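Hey, I'm writing a tutorial for new members on how sequence and structure tokens pair up, and I'd like a real worked example in the thread rather than a made-up one. If someone can provide the structure for the chain below, I'll link this post from the tutorial.
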Amino acid sequence: MFPKVSLADVLRVFTRIGFLSFGGPAGQIALMHRELVEDRRWIAEDDFLHALNVCHLLPGPEAQQLATWIGWRLHGWRGGLAAGLLFVIPGAVIILALSMLYAIASNLGWVAALFLGVKAAVLAIVVQALLRIAGRALDTAVKRALALAAFAGLFLFDLPFPLIVLGAGVIGMAIAAWQPSLLALKPGGAQDGIAAPRPWRGTLLAIALWGAIWAAPMAAVALTLGRDHVLWDIGAFFSQLAIVTFGGAYAVLAYMAQEAVQGFGWLQPGEMADGLGLAETTPGPLILVTQFVGFLAAFRMPEPFTPLMAGLLGAGLTTWVTFAPCFMWIFAFAPWIDRLGQAVRLKGGLAAVTAAVVGVIANLTAWFALHVLFARVEQVSVGVLRLHWPDLASFDWRAGLLAALAGMLAFALQWSVVRILVVCAAGGLALTLLP
């Protein structure tokens, strides 16, 4: 028998979780499991895992969506809103402060030296994430083929990220309907997903309400600044990203980096690694790295505002359009959790997307490695291929040495992310500034 939980208890516990949610999705989910399933017994083990599987099907950060679902389960929309916001706000405030400091001080030599080490550490951390996810996700030949195809499509042919993710989902659903064992799925029975009710009214109401909340700041930007302003570009881009962010921050980062660096010119390649390093060291979802990008984009094209005010508006708009859809997905689909969790075709789509995400993260790893280790990287076209080719003479031996150090600390000594980042940042400072 599970205890009745007050809204005040939900607020208190999720405030604690919000400030302690380091370590990316795996660490955050483990923290919630310990706090809410093992220690307080607010949620049953089966319900927790069941909801987590469905959250993987939805675009957006699965840990934040799981927190929102738990709050909804305990106290309806009030609990869901409280839990989801408290999961995000502490990290968002810290990332905003660090983004302001980065924008103001990034031209200082000692700051650049620190972030040389941060970028090298992030490279090792991303490689570690790639191997961990691949070991868990690629348990059949079909999944390995999907991962390889996703990597080739992005790294060699420069295909659009949404096409990769959505295409993998369609393929997975088709395979699940034909031969689910190819994706390590059990065949579905005739009653799969039938027992739960069909709450269409609540779902449509949630989509309408949260769709309006999602669109409200974009309407304000269009009416006051116009659709040629950088804030419109920021809001439109991150709204699009919110729809295709399957697989978490690592999966979507390569697409975001490509557009933010090459498409819009908001950031330099190395700055994306700096942003991920900041997000790795702070609580909250790793997708908060989008706030760093939004801040810098508006800070550097501030008219008619001051740079600081523009940066604050860019960060706020980015956070709004990134997380408002997360609440919409959960409040719309929470009543359907029991049905969706047993749908074999949807599980097949999820399994295929997860496999493709391994290829996406491999592409991100290669992209990071090239831009961290080499000062100059060009994109070369060879027929239908689009290759990223480094200038070998621009190899940065300091970054290579620090990346090797980070790899040893991560794999051989199994240090935590924060400790690796601190040591490598200090190493970057020493190698750059000491005579």
